[in-house]
Multicopper oxidase (Hydnomerulius pinastri MD-312), 619 residues
Amino acid sequence: MAPLPTSKEGSSNDHTDVETKAESEGVTLNDTRPQTAPTNSRRYRKLYIIGGAVAAIAVVALGLGLGLGLGLKHKSTNYVTTNSSFLLDPSFEVTSTPTTRYYEWVVEEVNGSPDGFERPMLVVNNQFPGPLVEVNSGDELVVNVFNKMSNGTTIHWHGQLQNGTNFMDGTNGITQCPIPPGMNFTYRFTINPSQYGTFWWHAHASTQYTDGIYGPIVIHSPDEPIYGTYDRDALVILSDWYHDMSVGLLTQYLSTSGIDGSNYGGFNPGAEPPPDSGLINGKMTGSALDLEPNLRYRLRLINMGTLTQFMFSVDEHVLSVVEADGISLEPVNVHRVPIHVAQRYSVILNTNQTAGSYNIRAEMQEVCYKLANPNLNKMVLGTMTYGTTPTTPNTVDWSDSLPQECLDLNSTMVVPAIPMNPPNSTQDVLVSMSFQQTFDSGGNQVLGFMNNTSWDAESSNPTILQFARTGVQTVFDSSQLVVVNDNITVVDLIMNNYDDSSHPFHLHGHVFWILGEGDGSYQPGISPLSLINPPRRDTLTIPGYGYIVIRFITDNPGLWAFHCHIGWHMAAGLLMQFASLPSKVQEFVIPSYMEQQCSMQSGGSLIGKRDYRWLGLGM
Ligand SMILES: [Cu+2]
């Protein structure tokens, strides 16, 4: 293994170190804005001393607040949802000159009530949804994450290629061990100069992100084909929401009696916990976009939910789809956009209709669930207003019928603006995904399987460290399905879905071509494949009892998860890995504190057996 760096990043077990570091970089705690690197000019130095003093006062205040508090387990409802923050600052400088952007994040448990029901939730810097990461292509991103929760966590940067920095991918049990309570981990990586568009970050340990640890990433670039074709940027974050902490729901979901306690008499085994509500920009009601008339707005739609596909629309406004998962598209006009978990779309909306307030609709596609919640209000509404004072809209929904349910936007509508044909494949990887009843725990436990493997996070022995220690490895624990390629290979990943539901699958560290998808099993030589500028994405939905064929190149060294992004399903085992160029993994300079933090997991022994047991709050 390569020599370990001497940096103290991420090694502290006391927040003081974080603050010292923050001060030395001119960052004040609780300042959630990105910080560019301070210069040596006197002006900056002065600001920076003041900043340090403010931070010191903040630290003392925080210490007093925590140490001499009233013994309340959670803070009161103090998370932030500021609607104006969902409109991006038009003065952000879009440039191809890279800089370093620093963020200081504190992850903790607070009480909140996004849908009116108060519950404990997990948040970054007291914000929900979490802080915006706004960068230019090629920038270096440094995020120091301090874990103030009582359980471990990791943060994953969804859609980031992490070329050469796989160990910053933030995937529990694969590229990292959970950051232990009271410790921090500094994520430091370069945004790929060729990447731009709409992304997000989220916790990647068990189902933890379901409880609120997520936020947007916007990458600007003058090279983006749609750059300059719109006037303003706005975020539209969609998510489903539960009234209980996910760990309790997960435990019940994976128990032999299932989510209803009886597995529906065996009638509906494996039914996922249905959400209690849906949110637009962190609110069930009252989310507002106050816009200016006669401008072209780029709405960046991100589904940060756990289970739900949404159908998004704005009354009386045609949406021009121009981006899917960071890939610019030939614009296509639609009334509604289906968006599954972890996917992103940008749509251009022109505020050129009669001045007024209009309904924003995010309709939860409850029909895709195995189990419905009779109390769920499926139609989540927000208000878009321009040219007048906001009022409750009385606009009506589009009258045309919904597109096919539970599937992605038709691939004929996802045409990359920069055409790229895939190279010929050199390897077929055939995978089946299914849910099966197992008798592991003496009863009928329903788990997810990729081929014959139901994944479980190796939270103290992530696969990246296994490779870093031993080089090319081909034998793994029974809970790990790993496809190893130590040469650059063009992989056709062919997956058949033996489950009746559709599933949004995400491949870490890659943009793949979608060659084909359809009903039934893939038939070699018969199922049609598209090789001329096929859609490129990082997350696609495999149809129920259907198949997909995606192609990608194993030229990015590291351990890359390929998994269903429905939180419950990943935790139930629907995850496999690609180990690309493992000889290069051995050369990675992995921060020494990663090993240190791994050795702290439950005394350093393998956790095994479904990671919810130790991620559980008070369990
Ligand atoms: Cu799934």
Notes: The radius of gyration is 23 Å. The pocket of copper (II) ion is lined by residues 503, 564, 566, 569, 574 (CB under 6 Å). Helices lie at 15-24, 42-67, 246-253, 463-470, 567-571, 582-585, 592-599, 612-615.
